[in-house]
Amino acid sequence: MNLLVTAISLILLPPACAIQANPQQQIPELSVRGKVLQETNGLPIRKASVQLNGRSGQTAAQYSAITDAEGRFTIGDVQAGTYVVVVEHPGFVQVSTGSRRTSITVQPGSDKSELTLRMQPAAIIAGKIVDLDGDPMRDVSVMATKTGSIAGTRNSHNFGYAGTNDLGEFRISELRAGRYKVTASPPQGMRGPDSKDNKGNDQPIYLATHYPGVLNEEQAIAVEVHPGVETRIDFGLLTGQAYHVSGSVVGIPSSSKMAQIILQSTRTGGSQITPQEIGEGGKFEFTSVLPGTYVARLITVTFDGGQPGMQMQRLGQPIEVSNSHVEGLRLQPEAGGRVRGKFRLDTDQKFDWTQLSVALIPAEEDGAELGWSGANGLPTTASLNLDGSFELKNVPGGNYQLLVVAHSNNLADYFTKAITFDGRDVADSGFPVSSETYLEIVISAKGASITGTVVDANGQPIANATVADVPSAEHRARIDLYQRDTTDASGRFSLRGLTAGKYSVFAFEEMQEDVRRPEFLKSYGTHGEVVQLDEGNRKNVVLKLISDQGDGQ
Q1: How many whole angstroms separate alpha carbon 404 and alpha carbon 379?
Q2: Three-state SS across 334-379?
């Protein structure tokens, strides 16, 4: 069930007595054999690492072997199940039909012929980073990201980084062929040789710059790289004015053993200023803050009974940094609020509310706060009582969305129909937390679903493909409506527990992208299947596998 997001369940193993029920039965030993070859000339690759990574459940085991001089390998005593085959060797990347991933099913009597795994020479991006005068810059971090990939889900060959040496040179190897965005980031607050002008005013600092020399990532030009080829790019870092943000924090709990302040940009993908210790009298000062809007947060650590506890609290309203220093701030942690609520069904049937729990997901500042939820000891989850009520205490101030979590697979078709706060439905928009916040939640068993089959360019079903949906714009902030499924041996998938609305559905052999980010729709928006759902609808579609090209082409 989604927004009745099904919680991860435990894998229950058979009891020991059941395993011993038939001691005479022998389980045949299963093995996987094969060879690793170069794609271009068919020559064997020795000392390649071949890994079998179990997909889930009892087949979550991992196995590995190293190829011999003829490129051959044998992995013995393999448990039956489905595995992703990964091959690694310095200077090479794995290839297969459409993507790097090869999936196999190991089972008794399968007697599959040996695997042939192919690799191609890795691509390389190298170059030089210079300052405004054209002089080399050292200790600059250079990052290359394949277009369409998102930081949280990059695989090792769609992303790379390196630092510049004393000549300003960098070299990023082990990349898969494709198109890459390249970003050079200087050490935080790095200034030129003359850091002040003749009036003693601070000079601009060097900024993270995208190839071929722009500050706006949307204006960056992707670099196309090819197998075994070193592509060279040289560009310079740009500068911008930075300012001081200083003041004091009052109301820090006396029991705190450590207190830090952090500034987080409200812009999606914006910068985060390195946390700093709060000084005597609660004073703080950040010396290299770029123009923008920031949320300040207090991080405190206490020790209760010898056990450390961490808490993060928001410090007032966002801070605007424009064309001058921001000084004399007096920040105070926002008082924690209480969130209470009551659930009901949209029908008169009985329901066991203890199967559900709730979680608060920070939803303000255009997603800038994603990732704080559930961390640092924040009280963001609660189980439901028998009557469908719940309570969350000491919730930091801010805007939140309520995520409903189901603890039973039997609830897959349920969905959150409405969340009412102050007389209005806030399921999509979220709601503010104050001293007292009360919610009314309606759930329904009439969730819509999208089922279907994933096929390749020849119309053949694809097993182990990843299918994901993206809701239309008005529902795009709802985490529960983003679903994923993996196709079975017949290429079938199922997305259940969806609210009414329009969805775009995508199928990949290997999913590297975060579908919640705007970059995903920019790259793949025209390649999905659009499905319109009414409440309780069951729609069946055939999805064509999307090529793993990073830009959706």
Answers
A1: 15
A2: CCCEEEEEEEEECCCCCCCHHHEEEEEEECCHHHCCCCCCCCCCCC
Q: Are the beta carbons of 413 and 445 closer than 8 angstroms?
A: yes
**In this prediction, what percent of the chain has a pLDDT beyond 90?**
49
Say if 337-444 and 449-544 have the same CATH topology: yes
Both tokens assigned to 16: 């020991």
* Domains of the chain by residue range: 31-121, 123-240, 244-331, 337-444, 449-544
Dist CA 141 CA 155 (whole Å): 19
Cis amide bond preceding 193, omega within 30:
no
Q: Please give the Cα distance from 374 to 381 (Å, whole number).
A: 8
Q: Give me the amino acid identity at 252.
A: I
Q: How confident is the model at residue 373 (pLDDT cuts 50, 70, 90)?
A: very low
CATH topology of domain 244-331: Immunoglobulin-like (2.60.40)
pLDDT averaged over the chain?
A: 82
Q: What's the mean pLDDT in 285-296?
A: 89
**Residue 185 above 80 pLDDT?**
yes
Beta-carbon contacts of 520 under 8 Å, excluding residues fewer than 6 positions away, are 148, 150, 470, 513, 514
Q: Which two tokens stand for residue 430?
A: 């979220």
Please choose, from the candidates 295, 272, 269, 274, the residue with its C-alpha nearest in 3D space to the C-alpha of residue 151: 269
Which residue in this structure is represented by tokens 């072997």? 65
* Per-residue pLDDT tens digits for 1-59: 554 454 433 333 333 333 334 444 455 578 899 999 998 899 999 999 999 887 654 44
Q: What digits encode the pLDDT tens for the residues 205-223? A: 898 899 999 988 878 999 9
The CATH fold of domain 449-544? Immunoglobulin-like (2.60.40)
CATH of domain 337-444: 2.60.40.10
- Spatial strand order in the sheet of 243-249: 283-289, 243-249, 326-331
Task: Write down the architecture of domain 31-121 according to CATH.
Answer: Sandwich (2.60)
The bridge status of strand 398-406 relative to strand 4-6 is parallel
> CATH assignment of 123-240, given 3.50.50.60, 3.40.50.720, 2.60.40.10, 3.30.450.20?
2.60.40.10
Q: List Cα–Cα distances, 369 to 4, 263, 404, in angstroms.
A: 22, 12, 19
φ and ψ at residue 475, rounded to 5 degrees: -110, 10
Cβ partners under 8 Å of residue 491, min gap 6? 453, 454, 455, 461, 462, 463, 465
The pairing of beta strand 431-433 with beta strand 398-406: antiparallel
pTM exceeds 0.70, yes or no: no
pLDDT, one tens digit per residue, over 243-252 is 899 999 998 8
Q: Which two tokens stand for residue 307?
A: 């056990």
Long-range contacts (CB closer than 8 Å, 24 or more residues apart) made by 61-68: 63/32, 67/35, 67/36
